[in-house]
Amino acid sequence: MAKYQQLVDQLREQIEAHIWPTGEKLPSLRQQAEQSGLSLMTVMHAYEVLESQGWIVSKPQSGYYVAPRAASSRARPPVQAIARTDQADTNSFVFDVLQATRDPAIMPFGSAFPDPELFPQRQLMRSLVKVSHTLRPGDALNNLPPGNEALRKILAQRYAQQGITLSPDDIVITNGAMEALNLSLQAVTEPGDWVVIENPSFYGALQAIERLKLNAIAIASDVQQGIDLQELEQALQRWPVKACWLMTNRQNPLGYTLSAERKQQLVALLARYDVAMIEDDVYSDLYSGQDKPLPAKAFDRDGRVLHCGSFSKNLVAGFRVGWVAAGRYAQRVQRIQLMSTLSTSAPMQLALADFLSTRSYDTHLKRLRQTLAKRKQLAQQALRRVLPADAHVSDTPGGYFLWIALPEHINTTALYHLALQAGISIAPGQLFSSGDQFSHCFRFNTAWPWDSRAEAAVETLGQLIAQLAGARR
Amino acid sequence: MAKYQQLVDQLREQIEAHIWPTGEKLPSLRQQAEQSGLSLMTVMHAYEVLESQGWIVSKPQSGYYVAPRAASSRARPPVQAIARTDQADTNSFVFDVLQATRDPAIMPFGSAFPDPELFPQRQLMRSLVKVSHTLRPGDALNNLPPGNEALRKILAQRYAQQGITLSPDDIVITNGAMEALNLSLQAVTEPGDWVVIENPSFYGALQAIERLKLNAIAIASDVQQGIDLQELEQALQRWPVKACWLMTNRQNPLGYTLSAERKQQLVALLARYDVAMIEDDVYSDLYSGQDKPLPAKAFDRDGRVLHCGSFSKNLVAGFRVGWVAAGRYAQRVQRIQLMSTLSTSAPMQLALADFLSTRSYDTHLKRLRQTLAKRKQLAQQALRRVLPADAHVSDTPGGYFLWIALPEHINTTALYHLALQAGISIAPGQLFSSGDQFSHCFRFNTAWPWDSRAEAAVETLGQLIAQLAGARR
């Protein structure tokens, strides 16, 4: 844990224990530094964090005082604030989990990607061959940020089909959604800023926030209802939040889709507090039912939503092409991209533009959704057979993840290590939160052929869970 | 200018003017904040910068005092320290210059890329078609960081041909050298750290340092000899430098190549001060003469050099494939890449691996070097005809840039704007330094067919320069 964080925790405990009562003056920065042996910079940082969290207030030309706060709110802080910490261990664990899913001998229930055999390889390669024959030497320049014009036009048309009007110039083509999200976050924050995420959330958000020296506020999110808008508003009242990084459709890892009404409320709330929204919508085409749900971007009136999409989860993983409809931030995103990776590969952009100009994409997506729905159902059935009766398996429509909550005493990081030895990967709850409240949960990828190998792997997983359950009883 | 920087400048001037004599106690942080109306954080930051630059020292439990320093060194600071500033304007100008080179109607003397018609388009596309036929759906996973194994092996073999032994596992394939450089910088620094660059230097280095909230120290670099190693050592003595970002072969924009001896001295010096080196070597294959010069990496004994290369300047710009031989930082670079862009496009990696496994690459490079040398000579001749007699045109072997120093009263940013109106781009000196000492210089890209259009553009450029020279006389 960072040194300043230790001081933050210590002072917060002391304030909670009324060692420093409301209104009391705290030691000056220099006094605190001398007492604690910490540097002035560290103490300054700790006081800053405490101030931004509402525990203390600074009075000009006087010093720092314990803030007046209601006892009730202090007893149970409404949101979980994660200050910057040294998350080297978490990053290293995420890395290990990702690496494990690359070994073809491992059953990839922990993977974030669907079975690549579901993708229209032949048609895509046909587009790539076509591009190989027509690409001109100068095409690299034509595909610099904001990216290939034909591709941006097609994307704008797809937004238009949902009734969302935006200009191709609002769209920036990126090296996958991962770059889109990272560029977006950089476009709307400075180090030290506060960013709201869901709890649990995509580990990429946690990592990006850590890497860019931002502070995260994780808002409780329900497996059915999604992010708690009341808690969100409380957080916006209390912290100087600059941006939210949220998923509105088939949230990773929980799987929920916010209702259109809640999306609208969300955007209105963020507009009220002038907060930018990074909308991670990489599963948008993997809906269930007839109609593709709207993104929150559909309710954006002033360009504050940066809507990030990708082809990696529904068409082709290896091309590394995504985009962001970046609203008022489009030019900033482009500039940061020029400094970071310069641009997205020209042949990949052109091949996708070619493929998307055919009808194949929608035909493929329809079939993909059907296959994924079937596989998910089979996985749910298989899991229910082997899981303890008190386990909870999420049942949200669309996508290909299940979120499984085991009885609380079963640690899924232990399960992860045991399963890996047995040739099975899962994504343990620890990846999706900086706290440990999901240490009994895991994410399960159902997008694999439901054959005897998968059945056997689920059997083994069930036995390992039973072992872990027994070990603690 | 940032507020803290104003305070830094003000106090430095006051110290130089002996308003605060050596040994004098400065106002405390809180006093200074009250006097100046600045926040404590800003004052703290300013004092920190002054301390790291050796102007003041802090004494525990006492305060800040003016440091004892030799009058001579104060009269002429040996290196130019650039503290973080708001460089939004510079970034915006770089962006505008880059955008201008994309318009085919503009003569791209300001471009960083060579004429794409010089690249072996047909053979590359043959490799791409081959890949299109053999790519398997699962290949995306096999090409995640560190990247395609065959490609990393070929690169390791090319290092071995120069007598540099490194494992394919030291190499990480990236989205062009731009990503390689940025990942490297992130791998070896934290915000607030000090980084050495050349003066002048590649604008991408200045931008990355600004974006990652680092502090730059720009070391004077001579158009023939390259970076001044004495100044570098003085800087290492005086500042807590974490990393250098340097070019050793055909430095951009000056064009010099450090001698092998100086490269060895450089690496030894950095080892002595335990400083990491990011070596930007994207022009390594564009040498003149028989043998490819060694990179500084060849003298690296303990994995501190992150050697960044690319195919964008010598083979194909639009694929966006580069690499870093990252030594002891290889795993860190991979992890940061996984969080930033996930990986480099699989088809692009595979197509390059296929192309490089043939003899075509070396045949192409040989021809490319010959053509570039011829074009550069023609450009030099044309420029000498039109430039004022007191202009200086660099004459360094290899590469395709010329660095042109006009008489000091001619402002090349003004020239840039005039030239652009006449359909000609140049890269003004302002892009390559945060100071203004190169405001009479510009970089000129000679890698274009030397036809009547180019000749006419150089004529026009000469007339514009004469106009500007006359205007101030």
UniProtKB/TrEMBL annotation, chains A, B:
Residues 1-69 form the HTH gntR-type domain. SMART domains: HTH_GNTR. One of its GO terms (molecular function) is pyridoxal phosphate binding. PROSITE patterns: HTH_GNTR. Pfam families: Aminotran_1_2, GntR. CDD domains: AAT_like, WHTH_GntR. InterPro entries: Aminotransferase_I/II_large, HTH_trans_reg/aminotransferase, PyrdxlP-dep_Trfase, PyrdxlP-dep_Trfase_major, PyrdxlP-dep_Trfase_small, Tscrpt_reg_HTH_GntR, WH-like_DNA-bd_sf, WH_DNA-bd_sf. Keywords: Aminotransferase, DNA-binding, Pyridoxal phosphate, Transcription, Transcription regulation, Transferase. In the C-terminal section; belongs to the class-I pyridoxal-phosphate-dependent aminotransferase family. This is PLP-dependent aminotransferase family protein.
